[in-house]
Each structure stands twice: as structure tokens, then as C-alpha cells.
Fold this sequence. Notes:
Elements lengths: L9 E5 L5 E3 L2 H10 L4 E6 L6 E4 L1 H20 L6 H4 L5 E5 L5 E3 L2 H6 L5 E7 L2 E5 L1 H6 L5 H13 L5
Antiparallel strand pairs: 1-7, 2-6, 3-4, 3-5, 4-8, 7-8
Amino acid sequence: MSNRDLFHGFSLQSVDDKGRVAIPADLRETLDGNSPAKQVLIARHPTLPCLVCYDAGWAQELNERLNNLARIAKAAGQVFDESAERRAMRAEKATYDANGRFVIPGFEKDRASIKRWAFFVGDGDTFQIWAPDVLVASDHDDEDLKERCRYYAAAKKVAL
Length: 160
């Protein structure tokens, strides 16, 4: 059992021309508590058209879990596609400043279709970053999440 804090909350943040965006305060507080190095790991979500972000502590825990699954599969004579499982570990580190600002790595930003706005979603051990228009148009069946995104967009007068 880990003593890490979990990520909770939602926010729509603007993204500047250089790809800079600020991690919302509630997510940043959790990130700081879990990893005081002021770094966030950013990867393509393994199944959704968004980014997944986490701290170094979660990366270590996830790595240990994958190693354990590989050992269990090998001992049972089962096939374990380790390369597929480790795709979620293909992350880039980004350092953020005291205000939580960081540059979304270009490859990840392009793959998630993030342009002028980024919708942040606390998701327990990780948080997600969505292009809001991609989220509301996706076949992702989380209608609550889509409704929240629409709400935050309307509050900032952002057309989706």
C-alpha cells in the first residue's frame, strides 16, 4: 500500500503558442506532495485519445507491478507481452515552475490534438489531459466527463 496522495479535480487551462500550460493548483499540490522534484511524466494514454500524467513515485510503482506480472506469467508458463504493457511507461519528463507551468512535449501534444485549450482530469494515481473538442466528440462513453468538460468550456466562453 502506497502513501501517495491521489489526483482529484477538473480544470480547463489555456495553452500558449509554445505549448506552455499550467497544471491546476489542486493537481499541482498532489504532484508536489508525491514528487517534490517539480517534474511530471507525460505519456500517451494507452487506450484513450488523451495524455496521462503522473509522478516519479507512480512510475516506480507501475514498473514494480509490471515486473511482478512478468515473473508470475513466466512461472506459470504464460505469455506476457511486456512490450505492450510497458507502452504506458513511454513518458517524457517535464519540469514545471512554481506556478505549475510546463511545456507539453510536442509529440504528445500533437498525438492528443491539444491546441489552445487543455482539459485536466484528476484520475486517482494519474491525471489526464484532453483536447476538449476531442473529448466531447469521442466515442468515449463517460458522459459525466464530457458534461464536465462542456461546463468548464462554457464557463470560460470556449466554443467546442
